[in-house]
């Protein structure tokens, strides 16, 4: 049994009473009233239709195969489905573009997850579940940089570090790392990445999704140094599942996400897929 499967089964067992209260008739592995063909808003009665991007990237989905359940968002999707009373065989995957998913209008999915930050602007067009993940700021470098060996914030203080100006990433350099040299400002993340490749800075700071993509796809010998702690009183971008505007499913999907957060499943999945050794450890 994989660790992901074991976690989902434990989650389902731990919240069975809560699930019954929410659905009135659901039990683990048995779709609730909305999934049996009643007019509850499911795209396909008896199924839950989940959308993600095309392609879907590591570590959110491994090998662009969400049906495998491998990767953080693929694992979260199956955990939410299980919490709602659907078996893995009842999960139907579809693909959408990022902008298409949050545009006004009807949807061909019940829920969509591809790192959508919850915002008031987007809420005008779609619904969101409660957050399943809150992103952090991450230090990225290359294997040839002195930053590649850093294991703590103290190890970064004497290095030259840059980020896109006007962003949370730039603020994190000044307020969390507090380097002895001024933070280097760039107009875009692409400019910051180019400076890193050319050795003009020792490291850059970007949000976690961008860090995984830059280090794994765009940089030669990219290195994730680690995640920066979030300053007290502040929060990172919060990712939520997207649903159609005023969807009758929003409340129950939110309840499922809340249950997975409260029983620790979301934290365990994040640790497995986003914070493991060689990925993005937390710097202290």
TrEMBL record:
The keyword Signal applies. The keyword Repeat does not apply. Keywords: Signal. It comes from the Bacteria. Residues 1-21 form the signal peptide. SUPFAM superfamilies: Periplasmic binding protein-like II. Residues 47-277 form the Solute-binding protein family 3/N-terminal domain. Residues 47-276 form the Ionotropic glutamate receptor C-terminal domain. Gene3D superfamilies: Periplasmic binding protein-like II (3.40.190.10). PROSITE patterns: PROKAR_LIPOPROTEIN. Pfam families: SBP_bac_3. This is Amino acid ABC transporter substrate-binding protein. It comes from Microbacterium jejuense.
């Amino acid at each position: 049994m994989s660790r992901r499967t074991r976690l989902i089964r434990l989650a389902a067992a731990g919240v069975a009473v809560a699930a019954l209260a929410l659905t009135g008739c659901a039990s683990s592995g048995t779709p609730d009233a909305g999934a049996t063909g009643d007019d509850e808003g499911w795209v396909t009665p008896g199924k839950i239709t989940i959308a993600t991007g095309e392609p879907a990237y590591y570590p959110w989905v491994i090998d662009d195969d969400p049906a495998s359940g491998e990767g953080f968002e693929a694992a979260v999707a199956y955990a939410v489905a299980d919490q709602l009373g659907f078996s893995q065989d009842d999960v139907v995957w579809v693909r959408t573009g990022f902008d298409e998913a949050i545009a006004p209008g009807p949807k061909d999915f019940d829920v969509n997850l591809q790192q959508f930050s919850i915002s008031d602007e987007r809420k005008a067009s779609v619904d969101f579940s409660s957050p399943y993940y809150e992103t952090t700021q991450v230090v990225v470098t290359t294997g040839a940089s002195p930053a590649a060996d850093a294991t703590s914030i103290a190890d970064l203080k004497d290095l030259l570090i840059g980020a896109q100006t006007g962003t949370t990433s730039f603020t994190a350099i000044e307020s969390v790392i507090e380097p002895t040299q001024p933070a280097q400002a760039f107009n875009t993340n692409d400019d910051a990445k180019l400076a890193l490749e050319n050795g003009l800075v020792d490291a850059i700071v970007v949000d976690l999704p961008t860090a995984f993509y830059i280090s794994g796809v765009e940089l030669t010998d990219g290195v994730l140094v680690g995640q920066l702690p979030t300053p007290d009183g502040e929060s990172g971008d919060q990712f939520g599942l997207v649903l159609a505007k005023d969807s009758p499913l929003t409340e129950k999907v939110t309840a499922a996400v809340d249950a997975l957060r409260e029983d620790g499943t979301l934290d365990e999945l994040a640790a497995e897929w986003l914070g493991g050794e060689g990925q993005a450890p937390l710097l202290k």
